[in-house]
Amino acid sequence: MTLMWADVQEIAIQLAEQKPDIDPHYVNFVELHRWVTSLPEFSDSPQRGGEKVLEAIQAAWIEEAG
């Protein structure tokens, strides 16, 4: 499976699994961007990860962690 920026929910699930001790409420976008692009299946262009998609990933992660 390959992950793209549009795979917001799957990215959030993987982040929740890989970083169970992190509270996604307090993750800054620079760190979030680095974590997403470091996921093993991630294969999209890092430049496409703008603020809106990072907000969506963070919101989905918060929901997943809740």
UniProtKB/TrEMBL annotation:
Family matches, as SUPFAM superfamilies: IscX-like (SSF140319)
Pfam families hit by this protein: Fe-S_assembly
Protein name: Fe-S cluster assembly protein IscX
Species of the source: Stutzerimonas azotifigens
